[in-house]
Amino acid sequence: MRLILLGPPGSGKGTQAQYIMERYEIPQISTGDMLRKSVADGTPLGIQIKATMDAGNLVSDDIIIKLVKERIQQPDCKSGFLLDGFPRTVRQAQALMESGVKIDKIIELQVSDDEIVRRLSGRRVHPGSGRVYHVEYQPPARAGHDDVTGEPLVQRDDDKEETIRKRLVIYHAQTSQVSVFYMRLTLADSENSPQYIKINAEQPPLVVCDEIFRNIA
Ligand code: AMP
User: Fold this and answer.
1) From 28, 53, 90, mutation site for ligand 1 pocket: most ligand atoms within 8 A of C-beta
2) Ligand 1 mean position to 151 CA, how many Å?
3) Fewer CB near the terminus (10 Å): N or C of the chain?
4) Per the annotation, does 132 bind a ligand?
């Protein structure tokens, strides 16, 4: 099973990716994770892309395409994979198609912008341990304080509403083009094109998971 998982930040992509990987025994290929590792390891690629990533801009298509092509040749991808964070541009989608890799399904997790803002802006972390809370969905015993140490919780800069809205604008701009690309493919040749599946990801995680499994079975 070769899958692409699309969804804005806060749509529960990480959680659903985990369920899919376990059920289908396929690796998750996250370009964001691969790039962050290169930066953390200080590889030549990491040094080259650090400033671009820090600014929240897209890394060049050539770099990403090469990275993904190499990764999907690895033996663990033989029976399939789950692409997460790729393709982000039409050129990337085109390169994937031209490389002869047949994608079976594309799953797009749909969540309204307001719900994303509610989910992410309510997030609080304990800087010392990385423990994560949510003011509404998973509050600490004492508001604003870590359950274990009692130390104050903080809101990450990228969880602030203004930043979230900016990230969503970028996400929609990218994804809409990629989804139009795949919709056109399907219209032209539905037999040989990946099936595009939209899932309402405002439902509880296990309901979303059920719906994904029903659609990709
Ligand atoms: P993510 O964790 O998927 O949000 O990715 C984090 C960062 O990695 C993005 O802001 C981009 O700078 C870079 N990145 C990840 N995937 C891609 C991609 N497919 N194309 C271009 N840049 C990417």
Assistant:
1) 53
2) 33
3) C
4) yes
Phi/psi for 123 (5° steps) reads: -75, 135
What would the pLDDT profile of 97-116 be if each residue is shown by its tens digit? 999 899 999 999 999 999 99
Q: According to the 3-state scheme, what is the secondary structure of 159-185?
A: HCHHHHHHHHHHHHHHHHHHHHHHHHH
Number of domains in the chain: 1
CATH code for position 33: 3.40.50.300
Range of the domain at 123: 2-216
pLDDT (tens digit per residue) in 158-168: 788 998 998 89
C-alpha Rg value of the chain to the nearest Å: 18
Per-residue model confidence as pLDDT tens digits over 136-187: 989 999 999 999 999 999 998 878 899 899 889 988 988 889 989 998 988 8
